[in-house]
Amino acid sequence: MARLSIEHVSKVFSDRPGEVQVVLNDVSFDIEDGEFVCLLGPSGCGKTTLLTMMGGFQEPTEGQICLDGEPISGPSPERGYVFQNYALFPWMTVEKNVAYGLKFQDLPEAEKKARVDAAIEMAHLTEHRKKFPIQLSGGMQQRCAVARALVGRPKVLLLDEPLGAVDFQMRELMQNELERMVQEAGITVVMVTHDVSESVFFSDRVIVFGRKEGEIVGNVTIDLPRTRDRSSEEYEHYVSHLTNLLRDAFKGASIK
Amino acid sequence: MENRDRTIRVPVNGDKKKARKMFLMNVAVMGGLCVAWFFAARAIGKPLVLPDFIETMKEFLTAWTNKRTMRNMGLTLKRVLTGSFYGLVIGSVLGLIMGYSEKAMSLLSPFINSLRQIPIMAWVPLSIIWFGLGEGPTIFMIFMAAVFPLIINTIAGVTDIDRNYFNAARSMGADTVSIFRDIVLPGAMPGFLTGLRLAVGSGWMSVICAEFIATSSGFGYLMIEAQERMQTAKLYALMIMSAVVGYGMDQLIRFIERRVTSWRFKDGKA
Q1: Are residues B32 and B123 in the same domain?
Q2: Do A87 and B187 touch (CB under 8 A)?
Q3: Does one domain contain both B182 and B93?
Q4: Contacts of B243 (CB under 8 A, 6+ apart)
Q5: What is the ipTM of this complex?
Q6: Which of B171, B186, B268 has its CB closest to that of A55?
Q7: pLDDT confidence bin for B23, thresholds 50/70/90
Q8: Residue B49 burial by CB count (10 A; 0-12/13-18/19+): exposed, middle or buried?
């Protein structure tokens, strides 16, 4: 059985009566246990909406999303979520932010403390644990957010463009860190991105979305050893293949 | 879901020199004003309108050791604290509820928004009818002056909280009570403290007005008395005192603000 299965999911918004906007139309795919899957597509293609539904923050209009066969309803610690702006609580220190990920789990205090310490260690934030988010660099904030999402040992990790706001030079560095943390945790990951190279760097599989209604235009398995060499020929090959898929999806649109 | 920058910039290291320079400038401007007053008073020669600077300063300095003045000042401060306290309790509770629940907001906001359009002084006659002369109307007036800035700024404090904080907390398993305690209360704190500053400020301003009319004690009453006895220098001195005390209270709240929400400042502690 698939870890996550998206079953005939549609999402329709209607801000005003009589006006409907179809964001996703009958989307289905499966994600296997331990897989790293990127949802790649242009902005407005519905990939983020899909991720927020996996997070349980929104409900599908039709269809359902199942985790280990159980339909998702509402947010839960089973699914760790890293927001685009990280959403670290600014009034809590690094330590408290990470500990919040365990706060509502039924564990002995000593176990909680050990897990929080380990997560902070994994995020290389031990010497910054008493700092507030505002005092951290972007990279540290990202690692803190990932640590907070992982500390509760969720079944899947959902990443909403966690590097979307990062400048180019910083990006590769943060990608390496994120790759390290995710591989160490050995967890199923779904990540939304619009950056082709980023999707090749991280993914076992890339699901490519077209321009609208969540139409899937490609489902590409990336068969490269980790950690991936961005300058290798095969890497370049995957990047151009995915870029072409996206370009074709756009071409179709411009003819209309 | 944009990433809002809620940083408040504070001068650090290199800016220290700048801050000192600024302070010296402030002192210089103040000194210049005093000198101008000194000569203007001599030139005009009507002490009833603009009293002699030196005499006013004498009044100002001796007022701080004058038992009667200080007793009335204490009385006024006590009224401000009492009225602001009621305003704080009711304002923050209403603000939190209205900020958190859209239903409460649409139910209460027309009422609150029209009530707050009534000028503070317009409550004087009614409050005298309700409470009689004395403490009642003054405290009520301060309450009325304090409660609206608290409501409005607490609402803003709650609605300014990044929606993703709620989602993040829920995805970590937080229930409604925990979200209120861990997200809403600390998240609304900056707005609430801004409201508190404005509330105590307008409370201080309106208490003196209230004391003109509704009581025969307090700092405002001393001012009316000075005016009636044509002691203009004393009146000036009392006005400067009220400015100093108001400024002091504001600085005190700002200090508390930095302490309580030190997480908003890059350099950490206050």
Answers
A1: no
A2: no
A3: yes
A4: none
A5: 0.90
A6: B171
A7: very high
A8: exposed
